[in-house]
Amino acid sequence: MKRGLVLEGGAMRGLFTAGVLDVLMERGVRFDGMIGVSAGACFGCNMKSGQIGRVIRYNKRFAKDPRYCSWTSLLRTGDLFGADFCYRRLPLELDVFDCEAFERNPMEFHVVATDCATGKPVYRRLDKADEAAFDWIRASASMPLVSRPVAIDGGEYLDGGLSDGIPLKYFESLGYGGNLVVTTRPRGYRKFPRRGVALLKPFLRRHPAVYRAIRTRHAWYNETLEYIESRVADGKAGLIAPDAPLPISRVCHDPDAMQRVYEIGREAAGRHLDAGGGHG
C-alpha cells in the first residue's frame, strides 16, 4: 500500500506545516506521495527537494519585503504575493530551490487548483520543477480577490482551497492508504457560512463559478473534516493538527510570529512521532 501525505493550506498558517515537514525530514520519515493545497503546495514541494529549513528561512528573510507580500504589490501587479518575485526570483536566484533534487526524489508530488470556469478542483502531478510546475503551485495558492487567476493551457485557475482544501479522498482514490494529514486548524474546528458573501459577487462577475465555490465552501469543508476524523478513528489515517488556533493571520510580516508558528508545528510533529504515529 502506498503511503501518502496530505497538506492543507491556510497562507501563513502553513508555517505550522513547514515545521511538521522539517521534523519528518530530519527523522527520515518517507512517503510514496504527497499532495498539497495552497500553502501546502508552496511549502510542501520543499520536502520533495529535501530542503530542511528553507521555508522558514525565506519567509523570515522577506517578511517585510513589499515584493514578497504587500498591498503595494497588489496595487502594482494584481497579486498580494508578488508572482514574479515569489515564483521566479526567489526560487531561482534569492533562495534557490533544488530543482534537481526535486526531480530525483521518487516521491510523487501533486497539487490542487480550482478551475475558474467550473469551480471544481483540478489535480496535477508535478514531476519536474520547471516553469509549468511553478505556475501550478502559484495557481494552487492564488487567493481570489487578492490574486489574478493563473492562465495555464487555455484555462484559468485559483486557490485549490476553494474546492478541495484537504484532498484525502482524492489521494485514497489513487491507492494511497494510511495517509498522514496535516491541517492548519485545530481538531474540532468547523467553518460557518461566510458573512457578507453576497458583497463579493460583483467582484467575481467574470467568474461566477468561483463565487459559488466560496458561498458553499463551508459545507464540503466540514464534511471533509468529519471524514478525516472517521478515518483517524478507524486507524486508516493519521492527523497532525495544532492544539489551538495558530497565533498568526493569513498575512503576516512579523518574523517572530512566523518562527513561533513554525516551532508549534515542530512540536506537534515530534509528539506525533514519539507517540508512534509514523505515517498514520
Explain the overall architecture.
It contains ten helices and eight strands. With 280 residues, it is an alpha/beta fold. A hairpin with a 2-residue loop joins β5 (150-152) and β6. α1 packs across α10 (255-274) and α3 runs antiparallel to α10. The protein is globular.
Features:
280 residues; alpha/beta; eight-stranded mixed beta sheet; 10 helices; 8 strands; 42% helix; globular
**What fraction strand?**
15-25%
The radius of gyration is 17 Å
What characteristic shape results from the CA principal axes? globular
Order of helices and strands: EHEHHHHHEEHEEHEHEH
**Main structural class:** alpha/beta
Total count of helical runs of at least 4 residues: 10
- Uncertain spans, ≥5 residues at pLDDT below 50? none
Helix content: 40-55%
> Largest beta sheet, briefly?
8 strands, mixed
Alpha carbon gap, first and last residue: 12 Å
Mean pLDDT across all amino acids: 97
Strand element count: 8
SSE blueprint:
Elements: E1 2-7, H1 14-26, E2 33-37, H2 39-48, H3 54-61, H4 71-77, H5 83-94, H6 99-104, E3 108-115, E4 121-125, H7 131-140, E5 150-152, E6 155-159, H8 168-173, E7 176-182, H9 208-233, E8 237-240, H10 255-274
Parallel strand pairs: 1-2, 1-7, 2-3, 7-8
Antiparallel strand pairs: 3-4, 3-6, 5-6
